[in-house]
Amino acid sequence: PIARLVNYAAAGVPPRIMGIGPVAAVPKALKQAGLKQDDIKLIELNEAFASQSLAVIRELGLNQDIVNVNGGAIALGHPLGCTGAKLSVQLFDEMRKRNMQGQYGMVTMCVGTGQGAAGIFEFLK
Q1: How far, in Å, CA of 9 to CA of 38, rounded?
Q2: 53-81 burial, b if ≥16 CB within 10 A, otherwise e?
Q3: Which label site among 57, 81, 98, 113 has the fewest CB atoms less than 10 Å from its CB?
Q4: Is the per-residue pLDDT at 69 higher than 90?
Q5: Helix/strand/coil for 69
Q6: Which CATH architecture has domain 3-123?
Q7: Which long-range contacts (CB under 8 A, 24 or more apart) does 73-76 make?
Q8: Distances in Å between the alpha carbon of 89 and those of 85, 106, 122?
């Protein structure tokens, strides 16, 4: 295996502030995994709008240097129905390039009506 799914969590925010669901999902995923935000070395954060990414980064206090290091959905595309798979593969590829065995990466997604998801992976090889 290339990576191990450590934990996955889904959570939501009120629908009127759609787009920042990861703000609720990320802390939940980290807590369930017994990890801290500093344990995460790379993040693929899905966004449909630039303001979404900025809001999530600011609300969670994420290190911008490790978020979407090769560009996000605005730059690279946002294929309907395969966002999670696409972001996971991007994360694994970058972790491989950086030789990050044994380290953690995270994929987040905002979903319509305020939902959010976060998956934490340990890179194996």
Answers
A1: 18
A2: bebbbeebebeeebbbbeebbeeeeeeee
A3: 81
A4: yes
A5: coil
A6: 3-Layer(aba) Sandwich (3.40)
A7: 73/46, 73/47, 73/48, 74/47, 74/48, 74/49, 74/50
A8: 6, 11, 13
- pLDDT tens by residue, 104-122: 999 999 888 889 999 999 9
d(C-alpha 98, C-alpha 88), whole Å: 15
Give strand ranges (E) for 48-103. none
Q: What phi and psi, each to the nearest 5 degrees, are found at residue 43? A: -135, 130
Structure tokens at 65: 């240097």
Task: Average the pLDDT over 11-31 and give the result.
Answer: 93
pLDDT over 70, % of the chain:
100
Q: Chain-centre distance of CA 2, in angstroms?
A: 18
Rounded-to-integer distance, Cα 112 and Cα 69, Å: 24
* Six token digits for residue 78: 């946002």
